[in-house]
């Protein structure tokens, strides 16, 4: 529990993987003392959230008005449905929202302008871009404020997302670029661990030992980076003894132009994000 004042009543419409991660973070934090209502389409999905402290879980197939009921009772409404479903959901709940309600998008590619055009001037809109480590409370969430979101609205939504990790406030124009770093970044990391594991197997280690060494080496390195507070380049230099084995390996990686690879990879992701935003 925490001495921090509780968050206002919250609704999560579409408590799937990301909405569910945020829901669990709220419950762990103790900040959801005023209640969270979560909706899912099926009874089976809704049942998975039953029993969480302070959570009311609604199955839309059993309670068709669940989204509007939840939105009407909340001060903060998170929209966690698939991007293609967002406009219809906003039209559905708009008449039920009270003036001053804060609506937060979890949907990739849906602009603040789309939300504001469907919800009107009495609602504060923010656009968020959480990432999958939010599932374990170590996420990074990008947060962009809409036209009618004042400092108070931004602060309360920031507190909400800090229950699942850290928050970076950016203008909306940077949300797509942020998604190529923190949003897609976990996939880049997992790919490197995959390839490192394969390299270990190629040197004669069992698959289990190779995976253990690869995963724990990266997890340990990340923990050292966080605990030390030092620049990653400085930590790399400490591992890289002059004329040693690591220096030889790092030279190969430099020759492969990893700097260019990551620039091209993130540029490709950004181009696709812009295509998705344009409906392509």
TrEMBL record:
Family note: Belongs to the pyrroline-5-carboxylate reductase family.
Role: Catalyzes the reduction of 1-pyrroline-5-carboxylate (PCA) to L-proline.
Superkingdom, natural source: Bacteria
GO-annotated molecular function: pyrroline-5-carboxylate reductase activity
Catalytic activity: L-proline + NADP(+) = (S)-1-pyrroline-5-carboxylate + NADPH + 2 H(+); L-proline + NAD(+) = (S)-1-pyrroline-5-carboxylate + NADH + 2 H(+)
InterPro entries according to UniProt: 6-PGluconate_DH-like_C_sf (IPR008927), NAD(P)-bd_dom_sf (IPR036291), P5C_Rdtase_cat_N (IPR028939), P5CR_dimer (IPR029036), Pyrroline-COOH_reductase (IPR000304)
Start and end residues of each Pyrroline-5-carboxylate reductase dimerisation domain: 172-276
Alphabetized UniProt keyword annotations: Amino-acid biosynthesis, Cytoplasm, NADP, Oxidoreductase, Proline biosynthesis
Subcellular location: Cytoplasm
Principal subcellular localisation of the protein: cytoplasm
Pathway(s) where this gene product acts: Amino-acid biosynthesis; L-proline biosynthesis; L-proline from L-glutamate 5-semialdehyde: step 1/1
Domain (Pyrroline-5-carboxylate reductase catalytic N-terminal): residue spans on this chain: 10-109
EC numbers for this chain: 1.5.1.2
Name under which the protein is recorded: Pyrroline-5-carboxylate reductase
